[in-house]
Amino acid sequence: MTRQRSRAWISGIIAILVSTVVFVVPFAFVLLQAAKTPAEASNLSFSWPTNFQFAQNFWDTLISNDGVIWRAIINSAVLTVCSVAIMVVLSAMAGYVLSRKKSKWGPVVNFFVLAGLIVPPAVVPTIWVLQGLKLFGTLPGMILVEATFGLSFCILLFRAFIGNIPRELDEAAVLDGAGPIRLFFKVVLPLLRPVVVTVIVVQSVFVFNDFAGPLYFLPGDQNVTVQLALFTFSGQNLSFYNLLFMAIFLITLPPLIAYIFFNRQIVAGMTSGAVKG
Amino acid sequence: MSTVNPSAAVQVTDIKPEIPPLKTKRHPIKSHYPTWFFIPVIALYVVFFAIPTFSSFYFSLTRWSLFDSKFIGFGNFVQFFQDPQLYTSFTHTLVYAVITSGAKVLIGFFLALLLTGPIVARGYLRALVFFPVLISTIGVGIMWKSLLDPFHGMVNAALGFFGLPQPGWFTDPNLALYSIAGVDIWKGVGIATVIFMAGFVAIPNEYFEAARIDGAGSWKILRQITIPLSKGATATVIILSLIGGLRSFDIIWVTTGGGPGFTSDVLASVIYKQYQAGFYGLSTAGNVVLFLLVTVIMVPVSYFLNRKTVEL
Hints:
Largest sheet of chain A: none
Shape of chain A: globular
Number of helices of chain A: 12
Strand content of chain A: under 5%
Strand order of the largest sheet of chain B: 1-2
CATH architecture of chain A: Orthogonal Bundle
Oligomer: heterodimer
CATH architecture of the largest domain in chain B: Orthogonal Bundle
Largest sheet of chain B: 2 strands, antiparallel
Helix content of chain A: over 70%
CATH topology of chain A: MetI-like fold
CATH topology of the largest domain in chain B: MetI-like fold
């Protein structure tokens, strides 16, 4: 037993040392850069800032470029909240009926769900469709596209979860006089809470971090999202590395907070969605 | 209706159809799962996914300005596979996907083995390995571009300190694609690790105990039990990372933009470049090539891998 314990300690210490170099140092680098003066930050060296101006850089980043970062944060928040809300409700409905009703269309539906996971979206034709609907370059259009891209993943998770909810519950609710809509929204949906939390957190992180989607479908300064703002920022502000790294830090904060609070759900969602996929 | 019917004979035939409801009584719920619950999902899927995908096959055969399109046959595809600036992206995509996928499987497997075994600070290590999965690819790209800067970057400073060569990670044409693959592995290995960990934990402990009683060493247990019984997890990691690698765009665009020259261009970045240049038909042809590549690789791979999955 002591031999095993000492092995656990030795491998643990080696792993901690290696992971510190590989993972902690890069993150620490971002934080240190974000606290430096512009001149010092442009060195890109891993050193303690001589003038610690974290708070000032924080404000400078928020107000730089006429507060573009504010607009980006608001746009990203609206995009994430709306698209995730749409995909959660719609795919819960679809996953519910899919898992309850066995039909001969099952394999066909499966095929299309999997296709939605695997097939790379055809970008320019999607722009063409959006233009036809007068939704190109608008936030509502982007919301619908993001919601569509997330559907397959959500449906798979919901279907698997609903399969574990006993049907007797539905029957009891129906005997008590619940119609199909009441049955779903008042009886089944509340039971889906754990998987709904998982789906919301995982998809929020995906949508929030999405870069290619807004790059193609949401051009224009008014509609800029955080990822696009960061990308543009990295192209033009080469003399303000400190603000650039502060921007990276700011954009990493929401997923970091989500990870601290929903660590279990995120890992469960990513692995179970993956196993089913 | 039967109450107003005077004829007893008709009444009998009228009752007959009443028998099927007896049968449905066993499934009184069926009608409570309304099919129209699918309609919104189908509408979104058709409008924003199916129509673009199917129409891409037509538009890839045209010279296209979004407003009108002129059919030109396979011209776009011919151009795609003749122009070295374009067709090299095809091989790059393959190389990139295979390298990232293979490395994620190997490193993820090893890390999962380490993190499910006896080790201190397991939670901390798992959180650390998984965290890059969640953060913005753009942020990761900018961060690594600074760390791997050929002149000021920290990595080269460290290499120089030990007297090792200091390559231009993203600026050397022979190295750029592999450097990006390295960053991609750094960012994505966490998801492979947690999938493998879930797979290992699902193996019943009795198997390990029985093997140990039979005198199997840890290498033998690994080869005869852990690897075969976590095939499902391995299949998932391979499939996921291959799809991700083939479609990869963000990390390449933010670190090198496909450069230097076209040495790190992949299909997804060519699609974007041609779109930017206004060659919508050519861009869509690239999209179709990517679609076919993903399908041609993923269908046999997933068939082969899922067939070999061992049921526990």
